[in-house]
Amino acid sequence: MIRKITLAAALTLTVATASSQRTYDELREISSLNRGVYGLQSMRDGEHYTVRRGNSIVKQSYADPEAADTLYTGAFGGYAFSPDEEMLLLSANSRPVYRHSFYADYDIVRVGGERVASLKNVRDVTISPDSRLVAYARDNDLYVGPLGGEARAVTDDGEWNKVINGTADWVYEEEYGFTKAYAFSPDSKRIAYLRFDESEVPTFQMMRFDRKLYNEPYSFKYPKAGDPNSKVELWLYDIASGAKSRVDTGSESDQYIPFIGWTPDGDLYFYRVNRKQNRFEVVLCRDNGTQKVIYDETSPTYVERPERGTVRFIDGDRFLVMNETTTGWNHIYLHSVAKGLVRPLTSGEWQVTGIAEVTDDAVYYLSTERSPLRRDLYAVDFKGKRKRRLTDRDGTYSIAPSKGMKYYISTFSSATEGNTVELRGGDGRFIRTLAESEKMTERMKSLPRREFFTFVSERGDSLNAYIIKPTDFDPAEKYPVLLTQYSGPGSQSVADRLSFDWENVLVGNGYIVVCCDGRGTGFMGERFKKQTYGNLGALEVEDQISFARYMASQPYVDPDRIGIYGWSYGGFMALGCALKGDGLFKMAIAVAPVTSWRYYDTIYTEIYNDLPQDNPAGYDDNSPINFADRLSDRTRLLIMHGTADDNVHVQNTMEMCNALNRARKQYDMMIYPDQNHSMYPSDGYNIRNKMIRYTLENL
Fold it and tell me: What is the pTM of this model?
């Protein structure tokens, strides 16, 4: 969050415009003018949706803007409907665990307010498809019971740092992006769940301070690259009888089972990924005990981490798959359980980025067809014909469809415009505007603008980039330049969407800010992305250094005042560029950086860099720790980290400091006690304050 900055009187931080001076606090105020529609959920009938308005949940008609009904009013954190939509699941007192996981208190109430059940200090709550049962996790065990009645323990062997039932372990949560590891069958008679045995996973200790007289370590299981993962099993629980049975997931225990689910016909299926992550399978389990691999994808490098939506069942036989390995571009393919691949539904040198909705006669999807910097909504039929674009502006769209896609709500933004939220028919016709950011867009007209261009590197690669110049830019002057970047595999920083952060303040102080997506980043095809495989930090650093040299050669740039910044993977990159740049960079800021991929987790690291046992050079040759002695005396380096970062451990920064100290190098540090990877909950303001001040003083 952007907040007001208070600095020494000598450092007046403003955002310059043609008409006035704006403070950093005013930039935050501009960001607050961005409008949206929040807590949006489509209802089963496809004719209504719900939104959150303050402490109320309001049911709204798509067709009639006057037809609105308040379903609930009261204090709550989040909400979800029961499958029959007669009840609401309301959370309160949320207590975060890691990035996605949290414990909370829940009330289940009927629409109108009558309380049905209350649950205290639980997580991953789900109401069954028949709306009669509720399941949840507590203390590493899974429970299920009738609404308003006593829950039964499905498992009883859960234990911290040993066994987890029904919820994901740390690395699955972080890298596959889910916490709920169970699923009701469509008839509500069975529950499939994952059991994680993490007893052999090494324990990591993270010191907590919490203003206590004696600080205490927080211990949790964290598998670093090459180390043992949890042994994951798939189990079935019969709710009526209480009987449990283990599902065969193959002879290999050192593998991943990232997602489980049920087909519309009630067959269980699961994803299976091997340890090297170059093979992805979908396995269908029949009630008679037989199994069938209904989808199999392999790659000489890796198959990108599957998501829940990678495979989407239409009915008991047909399903859709998004796949980039067939043609080198991510596209949609129609498959049959009985017959295998039926046909591709999309094709071309562009990428499908997600499926919005599937109806009886069409698939609605978002893609980069017009530009890798943008996202548009398209529809195509099941023969791969009658493709049509449904969006009409240049920028980035996100889509919230109604059931059956009779309507959809689109949220649009661009580099020069705030959000516009519109209701449209399934054919793309405009119905009405739900929210727009006119005041923000008007204010943005006087702010420096992001200009997109293609940078050709010294080796001839064409890379997407942007530049932000001061509003009073004079090509006859010389400006300092800050490179901001992330650069991680499959990522994208150069995009035509709304984006404000601390770097914008620098532009108002006479700096140029630039960004370049180098080799290995996303949405430019599989070949472009995967060329960094097994050698993380080599080509990416080459590209950023080449980009810095290019900027230094521009007549309006002061070549002695080039800086670079990055957070997380971007921090790894900022260090690599600062150390290998041989004095090219006058300043570098690395926030929460990975400094050796040996310190990072199994799933993320091994998919992009292979196992350290098989590729030690990929881990060591580009580790900033191993070339700390190359830091130039003219490069001012700031490293920042939170001590409670459960993702990129502060160990990374400590070992980087050790290496710099041994090399007798000077650098600056900021440590944030008890803050996580995003400096949550309290130091987001402080860190941005520090980065602005440090840049103004040293670049």
Answer: 0.95
